[in-house]
Design brief:
This protein is α/β, with parallel strands linked by helices and 351 residues long. Helices cover 33% and strands 27% of the residues. Strand 5 and strand 6 form a beta hairpin. Helix 8 runs parallel beside helix 9.
Amino acid sequence: MMIQAAYVFRHHWYEIFLVLHILMAIPFIVLYHYHVGGHGYQQFFWAAIAVWAFDRVFRIVRVLYGGIMANAEVAVFGDATQIIVKPSVHFKPKPGQYAFIYVLRHNFWESHPFSIVESRDGKYHFVVKAYDGLTRKMHKHLDATGKTTARVWIEGPYGESVHMDRFNTVFLVAGGIGITAVMAYALDLKGKNKDQHIVLHWVIREDVSFNWVAQQLADIAAESAIEVTIFVTGNSNSDSFREKKISDLLPQQSKGTSITSGEDINEKSVPSSESGSISDMSISSALNVRYNEKPNVGATIDDLCQNSNGSVAVFCCGPGRLADDCRAACVRNISKTPHRVDYFEDAFSWA
């Protein structure tokens, strides 16, 4: 059990880990019962069983309370899957929280924890990176438009949340699918404190990833207090993206999105789309898209700490190297600034 519980095993073969963990736990409990039976340690055995049973019963109750016949709307964008679920009983999630989803057509006994991007109109919005397990299986049931529906159970929300609104300056950093955790905080902070300085950096390989959180980005773009910079590091078709994806993404009137390739900045007003789904709003976008460039998060943190009028919070969700750079920069600035500097991280792992 110790070998197959290692992080590498759980990360790459989660379904196998789950089945083996359950199958091996049963004989372990039986053998442990006979092993300690005559030595006066039974009270510890039954105490452990009671804790385990309470956890199982509590989780089953949460599933039943959230609804055993909930419908999920599933759509695929590139290598990620968007899942929208409306539970029977709605709990308002806090930023940074997650929920377990059971897809009934694919091994209903398996549950997968996914970060909640936001709660909108009584529905939970998730974005899930496609791997070899559950999300790959869901792709097989897509229709011609790349969408499908599925019966699911939902359990949650769980997890802790950081009170980012207490800080004077907030720097949110996301790498790839890490935008799910970061976007939840950005949406929560939007419009809360007009004096708060909020900066969001998102690093992606392809501009198609915009579609993962298109509606949320449009909401953020309408809030000028949040400075959003998106770094597209891969070989994306920037010309096509400028003409099409930005116009599909953002509200369709009075848009001034800044698109950068390397060091050359090109202010471009994108023409209105006749068939845009978000067509009746009027904003000036705060999105800054930079192509073929990687962020220097260390320099950004240095600048924010030096120019902040108060406490600084850095929240990172992304690859290990990105988190290491953010952490090192925070440590470096603790002794350089008279203000408080806090670092928070969501690693998307159980290690």
